[in-house]
Amino acid sequence: MKNAERLGDRFAATVAAHADRSALRIGDRCWGYRELDDELSGHRATLDEICADPDRPVAVVVDGTAATFLPMLAVLFSPHPLIPLDAASPQSRVSTILTDTGALLWRTAPGTGADTAPGAESAPGYPRVDCAVLAYTSGSTGTPKAVRQGDELWLHQATELAHELGIVPGSVVAQALPATFGGGLDVTVTALLAGALLWTLDPRIDGVGDLVAELRGRRPQSLHLSPALLRAVLDTAGAGEALSGIDLVATCGEALDAVEVDRLRALTPEVTFVNRSGSSETGNLAFNSFTPDRELPTGTLPAGRIAAGKHIRVLDEHGTPLPDGAVGAIEVRSPHLARGYLCDGELVDFATHDTGDKEGPTAPPIRSHRTGDMGRVDGDRLTLLGRSDDTVKIRGYRVDIGEVTAAARAADGVGDAVVIARESTGRTELVAYVAPPRTARAPAIATVRTAIGRAVPSWMVPTHIVLLPELPRTERGKVDRSALPAPRRRPAYMPPATGTEKLLAPIYADLLGIGTDGIGAGGIGAGGIGADDDFVALGGDSLTAVTLLRRVEETFGVSLPPSAPITDPTVRDLAARIDAGAPMSADGVVVHLRGTDDVAASNDPGGSPAHTPIVFAFAGAGESALAFAPLARRLSGYRVIGLHAHGLENRGIPDPTIRRAARRFAGHVRRFCPHGPYRFVGHSLGGVIAMEVARILIDDGEVIEHIVCLDTVLIGPLQRRLPVHLPASTDDTADTADTATGSDVVDPEQAAAEHCSTWELWRTRVALLTAGWWPRPADAQWSLFHELGRRSALLHRLHPWPGPVTVVLAEDNPDPGEWWDVIAPDHQGVHRISGDHNGILRAPHVDATAEIVTDALTGANV
Fold it and tell me: Long-range contacts: 820-824, Cβ < 8 Å, 24+?
């Protein structure tokens, strides 16, 4: 297509025709067309000095500021192919793009997050991409994929959009879409080639509230934004005044419900709304324009009237065209499509079809492209009915799920992963299902989410991450997607209201790896932390809780007990706790754990109906009762009360023996539930404590319905004073010798202590003497109380428990299962499950633990 018109030629003609008109406004700075052209010429001269090859692609990282936006325009109107990169793109993605294309990364402002590729010559071994823009989507193979968009696509796009959206010389066009997003670059090119004033607004920098305030101050003729941002604007105070007087509002990137247009009309009845559909490969595909008097349909808006110059065919699974009204795969034919892809350094062209040379040798060929969408055509109207492959639209961005899956699999602690798209309340959400390697400890959800966020842009981070012991598979070895559980729903987003909530929400977001949906610090939707978001439900565990408490103390000067993130897990509740500045656990021992039922959510012991059965959960040595929080969430129908060591949270003298601790716990149990029958769960040493509390209550004439011992380890300190004979192991997982009483067992921790220096021994003794009185960081406090628990276990003589017990052993527990035939002759079952000692109380293994506990407490056959 020699001598064909290029984008730079069209822009030069616009400058000549409208030299004195206003062209671009960014912040408080405004450029006229002549001034803008002069500045872009200066940028191009700088580019020519560092890159002599006009065919070499140039990548520009754009953050919405003039310092990056103008250089992007300079490349766009130059002979170089432009690769626009969003500032939210992680370093790894930028590096992959530069490696695949041999592109020059033109650093135009500090802090853009990547190093300029050296050298002025075109990188050897890379093809000439022959296009105006390389628009990167994500690839189904897990790597980004570049769409080669020619000048012919962009020139047709600009002409058609100007006509459809009423953009004429002198129009003020407010663009609140990122310029690196296809829909944003569409509006940028259209406005600047039409002689209009392009006014860029970036709510990711200034927030939605400032965007609304800006619109109140300067009223554009048209406003262009994503559906998600439109919803946020409609929810913001002052939206009516800001939108009043705007002639046209247009959205693109994802489907929109007619309810949102109705809300828009309620604020500004004279507005025309345009829903536009398209893709990087096809450009404009369809328009659906709603003038003030046009009746709205119900539900999702159809794509609308097919764009000019585009011919759409609906095909069956064999590629045969279907008649009007039939549903099938969408194929687009036009001379105004992209030219193809750049995949792994190779040019992949779309199919071309004979034009008959009717428009001369410079006419672009007719190309065809199957979009991956399903839909139907009725006359000149198009209805899209979802994707037929693993490419989806997430909040306006096209996402191929393969890249997200690759990022999830690469996260530390993840052995396998699959990512799927689910529809939720009219929106498409990504859900990542991850499983640890068979013998490894499961990663924290926050860790996985953070790792994915470092590998892909924010809009590609899954809304939900679900930990599973292993991915369900079909008999052919493929992931059985029908067996993947639905994620737990997050509450509707409620913006943080108080000053404490607004400071606390970013701390949650940072620790849990959750962004703000790409819409600035205010957060407007599925990705932002709201006042009702729950720390535990979002993947917070006991380790993350320690960091949270430290950050709370640094930020607010308030020291909270380790149970606080569990008893008050939402931003709203924890903020109120911080404002109150006082602990709420009884005697520093009792923690009220939130369950699946609302009746279990109250911190008031009298707040639950009397008929709700109570489960008392006893923590192990040095462990806070908050460790039971994930389990409590899964015990439907029960109110769970956790108990941990005296002095662990509040000041107090620790109980020196297990029996002394049991007497204290028995008093708390009686206070909440004067009479049985009682249900106990104990983790680690907590299982022994539960049995001792049970003995005290039985002596008082009470009934113990059931005890569940979760990974109570017998070998070690407890085994040293056992009064009974334990049989030799027949369990291949154990490597312990036959022993009569355990008196010959060597305690590895005691043996290690014998090699400590005198100073270290005295320091440990002083620390133990001051435990419970001298304030320490939560992790140091837990470590000290673990040592106290170990010493109390060395002094304890564990007698067999004659009542009903269910035993759960982690896969790394060294005890032979048959030892429990002696320790609990009436046990109802010994179950060994995946996960390590603490991991059986955390996702993904806690689901298996909860199932066994539920069966035991309900009397099912376990």
Answer: 821/727, 822/724, 822/725, 822/726, 822/727, 823/714, 823/724, 823/798, 824/709, 824/800
